[in-house]
Design a protein that fits this description.
Elements: H1 3-28, H2 35-42, H3 46-52, H4 56-81, H5 87-104, H6 106-115, H7 121-129, H8 132-151, H9 159-169, H10 172-182, H11 186-196
Helix pairs in contact: 1-2, 2-3, 4-5, 4-6, 5-8, 5-11, 8-9
Amino acid sequence: MSARVERKDAAEHRKLILQTAEKLFDDHGVNAVSMHQIAKTAGIGQGTLYRRYTHKGDLCLDLIQDFSHEFVEQIERYLKEHRELPAEERLGGVLDRWIDTIEKKSELIMTVEAHQLKGSEESRAATFFQSPLYQFVRDRMSELLTEIAKRRPDSAADPTLTAHSLICAMAPHGYFHMKHEKHFSTDQMKHNYRRLCRLPVSD
């Protein structure tokens, strides 16, 4: 078998595995689905599954990375379609969509974080801060904050540092800690982050 055919087969197996896992996770929840169930439903051998993913955390990470690409495309599309809105409204829209993404993929995110606990806090943070997702969101937020600052002489905070601080404050682990401990609703969390940036609060 040629290398090209092998690569095609591997890509098809990956797509099948991820589609099957996502459907099972949506139907039953991440924690309730086993690797055996994923392999059986996908119609592949467990050996094939484990050669690609050593545990469910690896599979969830791959799903998160795919969803990250979708999120980037969603934000690019949102900013393009709403480029006539004030920068404050666009930034608020980005913040809201970030929280919606965290909520939608909460089980996947927490499963990945649980499997990453073996690594040091520094290495895990470094991996995220070097990711295309972090850099994209930071840069788009920074651009919007810079645009806002041009019309607000009292906005002295550095846009890049402010964008970084917002992303850190909205990191999934900390977000869910505050939501579950203090029982804030999703709308309350969204409104609070908007107020931190002195943005209009959506209805």
